[in-house]
Amino acid sequence: MLWLAPQPLVVASRSAARRAMLEASGIPIEPTEADIDERQVEVRAGPVSPAQAALVLAREKARVVAVQRSGCYVVGADQTLALGDRRFNKPADRDAAREQLKAMSGRTHALHSAVAVAKDGRVIFGHVETAQLTMRRLTDRFLDAYLDSAGDAVTASVGAYQLERLGIHLFERIDGDHFTILGLPLLPLLGFLRREGCLVG
User: Fold this and answer.
1) Is position 78 annotated as part of the catalytic site?
2) Which tens digits make up the pLDDT trace of 127-148?
3) pTM here?
């Protein structure tokens, strides 16, 4: 057994990919959701870079849940996407997803993935990593086929794709850590948990 902490790791995220990564690494988790207004959190933070925005949101998700879960380690995570100076959020619908994909077609965008850990309402760890992804030039025919095949999943993540699924067909080059691209800088998180004595060192 690698996990040493007396309670499961509380994961304040809706992301099935993040939960699956942690479970696959042998960590018992307790999934929950952080009840925060992400846009309000960003407004309070003031002007920040896309990378810092991801970290601000990850920290707040972890902190809010940790206030309610005494003694537990709580993980929060967030991801932002930037195409030059333009930042993208999750598309509201198929049309918005198509617009985003057309904007990114043939260009390189940055994915910023942040993770934070809080305990007893206090953030004790935060880290953000960036990956660069280059989309191939997407034809209208491909976009129609992709959107039809992916369905509602295109509205579930920033950028209108999941790299571990059909989203892989969008790209010609990817530079960055695989876990970061999936939305969780896993290796830095595991290193922190080992230092805390939650994992066998």
Assistant:
1) yes
2) 999 999 999 999 999 999 999 9
3) 0.92
User: To 10 degrees, what angle do helices 50-68 and 38-45 make?
Assistant: 120
The Cα diameter of the chain in Å comes to: 53
Q: Which of 35, 78, 95, 120 is catalytic?
A: 78
- Asked whether 45 and 37 are in contact (CB, 8 A), the reply is no
* Direct distance between the N- and C-terminal alpha carbons of the chain, in angstroms, rounded to an integer: 12
Domains of the chain: 9-195 (3.90.950.10)
State the pLDDT confidence band at 71, using cuts at 50, 70 and 90.
Answer: very high
